[in-house]
Structure formats: structure tokens, C-alpha cells
What does this fold into?
Amino acid sequence: MDSVGGPPLRLALTDALGRGDRDGVVRLMQAATPSERRSVAPFVRRHDARVSSLPGGSLAPDGEWRGRLTPAHWSASSAAQLACLSPERAARYWPLDLRDRIDLPPALHPEDLHVFVHEWSARLVRSPKDWDGLNGIEAMFDWVRDGLVPPPLDHGAVLLLGAWLPSARGGGWLLSYLEARPTLIGTTLAAVFDVDGVPGASLAQCDQTMAWQSRRMDRHVIPELVRRGHWSRDFVLDGIERALQRGQTGYHTRWFVGLRDVVMRMRVR
It folds into this structure.
């Protein structure tokens, strides 16, 4: 048998994909040479297209997986496909859930995580309502926590952390999330005063649509960051002035002026 990209790798992949063994797929592809990855790419592409086109619970038309189709089969297929793509194309691959976004790029493209950060950030700016395509891209912040990438300052990364995520999950969730990843507070999140929102991802829209109005960014999160000593009141007020000096729509101007009023009334020890 041809040992470079020949039957052994394809047979092993077929078995791991059939079992929905994502981590087994990762180990195989980590051990494969670039030539071997290229040789199995057509097979992987066909398999991923078939798996992705069918709903959960489907039986394999030609025995491509065992039992009924499960998220484990999708995850294993995604791992194989990401391994066969260049970093630039892998960063555009979707859908992926949060666990796969956290685990797969560092395992398969460890030297190119910046490519994923930049592409995912740009995607949020381009299409902030593309919920499927954006699902799980906050994985980049776990990479920061784990020391794999520096805190991102891309436009989209800042809006992701400061507006898009809390809009969906609430300000209370965001505070806990930040304190588990404290490096982000003085870096990515601090840049919210220096980037402009986009329709679908802005501080003002986040607060307007947040289900938990008592946990808004302006009334709770930002004041609480000051109370807990992460930010100073002067830092916030200076940031507000920079944002206003850039020029804002009336909608956003009212939000920043309202935040300034809240912070000015705060009693800080």
C-alpha cells in the first residue's frame, strides 16, 4: 500500500468518521503530512457535504456512519474538513458549535489562530445577524484566557464582547464571563469607546434589546466595572468624550450622554 496519502489514512479516517470520533480524527490529521492531508481532501469534502446535508437522526445512505446521525458525527466531519483546508478557508467554514471552535483551530492550525480571529471579527461587522455563522466565535476569548492569542482589538471582536454577546445573554452573564477572563477587561472591552457600532451590534442597541433591563451595559455593567476597581471613573468619562467627539448618531449620542450621567452620579471610594 502507498503509505503517503494512500489507503491506511483513508481507512482510519473512515472508521473514525463513522464512529463520530472527533478527537480520533484530530489525532489522525495531526499525524498526517501536508501531502497526506491533501490526498484525502476530496474524500473528506464529499463526506462533509453528505453529513451536513442531512438532519440529525438520519441513517447513512451508503454506510458512511454507524447508527443514526448525531452531533458527534457532524463534529468529527468538521474536524476532518478543517484539517484539509488552508487556515484562511478553515476560518470561513461554518457552522461550528462553541466547543469545536474552541478546540479545533488550535489543534489543527495552531500557528494561524490570528487568521481565525481576524476573519471571525470581520464576519461580525459584515453580518451581525448571521446567527449560525457567528455561533461560537467567542472561542477567541477562551484562546486569550489560555494564552494562545493576544487580546484582539479588531473592530468586530470589540463589538462581539461589548455588545453582541451581552445583548443575547445579559449584563450579569457578561460580568461573570469577564472576571473569568480578566485580561479582556483592560484590552478588548476597554476599546468599546474607540470603535463605532454597526446595525445589529452596538452598545445602544444592546441595551435597548436586552431582556434584563436592570443589567444593561450603561446602568449596571460599566458602573459595576468601576465599583469593582477594574476601570476608573475618569477612564470611562474620557472614553465617553472620545466617542462623542468622533461624532455619533442621535441614538448613540443619547446612550453615551446617559452613561455619562450615570457615571457622574456614582459615589466611588
Remarks:
- The first helix runs from residue 7 to 19.
- The mean pLDDT is 95.
- The radius of gyration is 22 Å.
